[in-house]
Every structure is written in structure tokens, then in C-alpha cells.
Amino acid sequence: MLSFEVLGQTIVNGIAAASIYMMISLGLALVFGVMRVVNLAQGEFMMLAAFGSFWLFTLYGVDPYLSMVAMIPASLLLGYAVYRLIIRRLLGADDINQFLATFGLALMLQGIAQYLWSADLRRLPYVLPSLEVGDVTLAGVRVVNIGVCLAVLAFLAWFLGWTGIGRSVRATASNRMGAMLCGVDVRRVDATTFLLGTAISAVGGTMLALVYFVYPSVGAGLIFKGFAVVILGGMGSIAGVIVGSLVLGITEAMVNVYVSSQLSALVAFAVIFIVLVSRPQGLFGTAR
Amino acid sequence: MTSSSTPGGTLLALLPWLVALAIAAAVPLFLPIYMQRVAVTCLMFVTLGVSWNLSGGFAGQLSLGQAAFFGIGAYGSMITAEHVTSDLLTSIVVGGIVAGLCTPILFPAFRLRGIYLGMATFALGESMRVVAEKVFPGEASGLHTPVVFAVDSLAPYYWALGIAAFTIAVGAWTIRSRLGLGLMTVREDDQAARSIGVPVALYKAIVFAIGAFATGLAGGFYARYLGFIDPHSVFHLDHSINPVFVTIIGGIGTELGPIVGAIFWVILQEVLRGLTDTPAVNTIIYGLLLLVVILVVPRGIVGESQAIWRRIADRRRGRRTGKEIPVVAD
Amino acid sequence: MLALDSVEAGYGQAKVLHGVSLTVEPGEIVVLLGANGAGKTTTLRVISGIIGARGGVTFEGRPLIGMAPNRIVELGLLQVPEGRQLFADMSVEDNLLMGSHSARAKPHRARALEQSYALFPVLKERRTQKAGTLSGGQQQMLAIGRALMAQPRLLLLDEPSLGLAPQLVTAVFEAIRRSNESGMAILLVEQNANQALRFAHRGYVLEGGRVVHRGSASELADDPAVQRAYLGLRAATA
Q1: From the candidates C51, C84, C87, C144, which should be mutated to test the interface with A, based on the most A CB atoms within 10 A?
Q2: Number of domains in chain A
Q3: Looking at the domain assignment, is residue A124 inside a domain?
Q4: Which residues contact B163 (CB under 8 A, 6 or more apart)?
Q5: B130/A263 CB distance under 8 A
Q6: Mean predicted confidence (pLDDT) in B256-264
């Protein structure tokens, strides 16, 4: 019963999911690439921004695309505090300590959100007219999400490829000691990178709120999609994030439609396990 | 490792443990029923923590998928109880054995280290949960067995104590054996360990199997104790995280660490429960505690105490350790 | 210009330097000789601020210990490190541009890039290529080029000849000599004592983290103990 309409719709849904996966994975990949720190709380930045947009809309009727922009400075404040108090001290720490400290932070942020807003599932009732291409229906907010995602990627490409600080970020990721010996203030690069990742995830939070439920542990579910993506794409590789997100998003959508909706949750875990075991450097990474 | 080569020496080394066991055996007699149940949870944490500490602490293999073995043990014992024999000991031991026999699902991950092993084992644990939810679907996903323990029975406590004591003993034997020494070299550098003839893969397999067996026992006991299980509860991420958590708080890579950590954590939880009944606050404290422990006392309660004790002892002996040269490179 | 006074340093509990003292004067080429593990690389790491130390390290009277590596670079003290530490997955040109990262070098970036390309034309040919794909000799040139981009006043070189074919060694040393003629002071770490002493002004010999010989290049080259230990060694290991 292979119909092209269903296939087309499935792929489009997969791409829409991928646009959100990219937002969390870019943060993970940037931070890991430069600092070799795995930040498990990346999903909570997303969750908090999702709540921010939700409440601004619900209480004051603020358009989510306006609050998406407003979430950026807010996330930078939180991100800087987290960087100074926690992430900076984890540089060079044991893997397990990094993992557990950022896990602790994630739990704390989840707990705070739950304390303030309860564990209820909430929905941001914002609708844009949908787009019909042939028999494929594209929900308006999903189309805009994909557009926002492309804009973020374009910004990142410009920042990393064409600015001096972007070059320092790439250099620090490539060879930290080399960068230090060139006079790069690697701590400033660390902070910049962390904040960049935070801001991208915050933008992703609003995107998420537009197409999914908002609740305190929504980020925890997403972080593992993010792991699957960065592992698939090679830890720390930006190009890998793009391809990895698309592969994961589309595969999940396919499994959901053609196999079993229950098993689509398995895709991310299967990807993590199988890719790590068979090709630890990812599809795009080089062995380190 | 120990200097207890004579039988008398062995007995002397065992004495503190036997005293502790005697105290632990006497404790429930003075506890109200509610606290007895809390104590059972505490002993489960001890079992899970001690078994995780073998691979995670002494061998340095970060595993975040112990829930898989806990769940397998739980299902193993429940299915045995339902279809073979309702004998408690048999079903629990079968649960442990089945979990131990499932260790080979970890083999492909053995070449991974650190965070990568952590993520792979984590993915495995979560996959098991998803698969179990698929295999035991819908309303019928739960399994029931007749209640074994009376509400006010002390038996669950002694079962849990027995399993914990067994796990501690096996753990103590493991780290003192050739296996344990080999694993500690693996923790430092597995290439080097291989080059001096340590069968790295075999040792990893054995230590993970021991841990899986003990974790399976705990899962099997937990299942029979409650008399009802479903995939969501026994394959829950908590069973992967809690053992790591209590071990870190107590002191990773120390024998007493997971025991002290489990007691500390359970008492703290009870104190918190007395102050507030909001689960969110519990989550916040849990997170905060993890953060503080890792940033401030990464060696945990036991590790930090040992370090302080050693410093005092050094000073008393007047030994100059030499000032450490600051290293700022990262 | 640069002065080390009884410097002690190490990694964790393992002490590597047990009181190293040396100086480099403006316009000088000074060579630091010694066997593997004598503490040469550690000495350079201390000077660049990569690792901490006790004792005195001053550059033009300014104490360097405790100063962040990037601020030391701002003073014009550059290192071409052991293992080159290039940005392997970045282009040759990006690597060079990273060299002029410091505020004092940035205004001269365009001219410096031209000079680097004039010094090593092969780098210009390969400027869009990833640094990791260059040959060993080209990588060494890139590492030196990158350091020169920073307008150094004192250049620290850690075994620039390591693993290079003889004609490349000559080219690399030629580049160093030319930089020195334009007024740059140089502290060179070498195992290749013959070559190094031929064009250095002065030298120090490190052994077990201590300076055991010092003198002008010709004095060291004539010293029987140095000859036996370091000049003969080359023939044996070459």
C-alpha cells in the first residue's frame, strides 16, 4: 500500500521533526566540539524557552515569533550563569562527572519548572494557514519552523566561516593548545560557544512549543534525540548535525507510519547503540 | 591486597563487617513498619550501588544501563513464579541468573570508553524498556503473583539484607582477587593493561556479569516483594541512575562508598518527605545534590573523608609531602 | 629580554624541572640542547604559560608566571610547539590567519600573510587545502609561518627539524635565520645539536631538569663532554 502521498507526507513530517532536532543538537555539538563537555541540560534550555513563549502567549497574547526573539537574551543570561558556575569547572573533568553534574543541573531545572508550572502537558494554540502542495499538507507553523531552522544554519555558517571570532571557535575546537599558543583566549571562546548553543536551543524551544506539548521533562526526552544526532553525525561536527537530524527525523517518521508508532521511540536508542558500536567516530567525524 | 594471609588476620579483617551485619540485623526490630519499608529500599540501593561500583568505580567502565538487568531479573523471577515454582529463593535466583546470562548484550559496547560507553549502555537500557513495553503490551503488560509477605513481616528486610550482604561479599572478594587488580589497571589504561597480559575483554565480561547477576537478584526480589510489575516500573531509568547516584555521593571506587551513599540518600529523602510533599522539590534537591557533590566533593563522602584522614595522618607523622606544583594547562 | 631564574615545574607530582636558569638577549639565537626527557619542552611550556611553575620567568622585566597564554602572546612571545599543534581541519590560510589573532598583530595581517607566503611559497599554492593534508615538512613550515604571523619579538621553536628530510631541515633553518636577521630573538630546542650549534649564538645543555653546560655555540661545540653526549649521539641515531 505504498502511496506517494503518504510517503511524501511522512518525509515532510520527518524534516519538520529534524528542524527541531537540529536546534538541540547544534548546541550539543558546538559545546562538545570546543570544550569536550557533554551538556545534558541542553534540553532544559529548550524547555524553559518553550515555557517562556507559552506563557507570554497565554497571558499577554505575545506572538510566539516575537517571543522567540525575546527568549534569546533571556537564555543568554541563564546560559552565562550556568557557564560560570558549572560548565567552566567541568573542563577536563572525568566523563562521568561531566555527565552527572549536567544531569543534576537538568534535574534541577526540570524540578523548578515543575514546581512553578506543574507537570501538566500544555499546548500553545497558535495556528498559521497550512500549505497544500499536491496531496501533501504542510502545517503553517512547521513550514515556518523549517524556515527558522534554515535561518539559524545560515547564521551559524556565516558566524563560523566568515567572522574572526568564528575562526577562533573553529581553531579552539580543532586544537585547543594550538589556539592558546596563537593568543586565543580560549575561555572567552568557551563562553561564546556555550552561549551560542544556548541561544540556538532557546530558539528551538519556541519552535517546539508551536508544534508539540510543553511540559517540564520535554527537554529530557529531546536530549537523547540530540545524542543520537551528534553520534550519527560525529561528535562536534556541524555538517554531521544537519545530516544526522534529517536521518533521524525521517527514519522515525517512516517507522511511525510503516512499522509501529511504539517502536519509533526505539530509533534514537538503536541509532546511539549501533553507531557507537560499529563506527564510534560517526558517519562524518574522523577518529580522534 | 590485604595483609590478611593468616586465618586469624582474615577474621580480624572481617570483624567490622560482621559487627555491621549484626547491627543491620538488629535495626528493624526497633523500626516502625513504615521505616522498615524504607530500610528495604535502602538495602536495594546498597545492592545496586555496590554492584554498579564494581564495573563503574573499580574498573572505570561507565555503565548507565543497569535498569536492563534489573528489569530482566524482575521478569525472570515473576515468570518463574508464575509458571514454574512460587518458591521465593528459586525465583529470585533465577532472576539473577537470567540477568547474568544477558550480559553478552553488552559485549559490542566493550570497545567503548567513558561517555561513549555511558551513552551506549544508556541507549541499551532504554531500548529494553521500549521493547518490553512492546512485548508485554496494553493492559496486560503487568504481571501479578500472589503476595508472599505479610504486611507487618520482617522477612522482606532480611531478604534484602541477605542480598545486599551477599553482593558486598562478592564485591569484596572480586576487588581483592586477580580479577579486581586486573580491572584496576584497565581503569587506568586499558592498552597498558592489555600489554601486561590482562585479558581485558574477559575481565570486563566477568565483572559486568557479576554486577548483572546482583542487579538481577535485586530486581527479582523487588518484583516478588511488590507482587506486581510492569515494564515501565522495572526498566525505569531510575534503576540505572540511582546506583550511580548513591555511589557518587558515597565515594566512587571505594568499598564503603555505595553503602554510605545509599544510607545517606535514603535518610535525606525521608527528611525531605517530612518537610514537603511536593515531588518537584525532591527533584530539585536531587539535582542540586548531584551538582554540589561533583563540583565540591567529587570523591564523595567516603573518598573525601579518607583524603582528609590521610592528610591528618601525614601531618602527625611530620612527613613532608612536598608542595604540589600548580598546573594550569587543560 | 627573557630570563628564567631557578624555575621548577612538572606535571602533578612528577617534577621535571629542578631549577632552570637561562637568558635570551635581543637579537640572539639561543639553543637549548638535551636528551629526551631532559625538560626542554617543559621549559618552553612554562615560558608560554601552558603550565604553571615556581621560580622566576620574566620577559622584558615583566613576570610571566601565572599569566594566561593569550596575554603572553600579546607581549610578542610566540612558540612553534612540539607536534606543531596546527588546526588540522582548517585551511592553510585560516591557520596562518589564526597566527595574527593577537591585537598587536592584527593591524599587520595582510602584510604578514604576504611575507609568510613569500617565505614559504608552497603554502601559497596550497592555501585552500586543509592543514592536516600537508606533508610533514609543509606542516612545519605552516607552524613557523603561523607563529611569524604574530609579529613575534621572541620566537620559541621546539624541534623544528624533527622528522624532516635533510633538504627541508636546511630550508626551515634558513627561514629561522632570516627571521633572526630582521631582529627577532630565537630560543631553539633541538636534539639535532650539530645543525643547531652551527647557527646559534649561545647555548644551554639540559640534563635531568638542570642546566649542566652553558656557553657560546663554539664553546659548546668544542666541549668534549657535549661532543660525546650530544654530537656523537646524532650520528648514532640518524
Answers
A1: C87
A2: 1
A3: yes
A4: B43, B47, B92, B214, B217, B218, B221
A5: yes
A6: 94
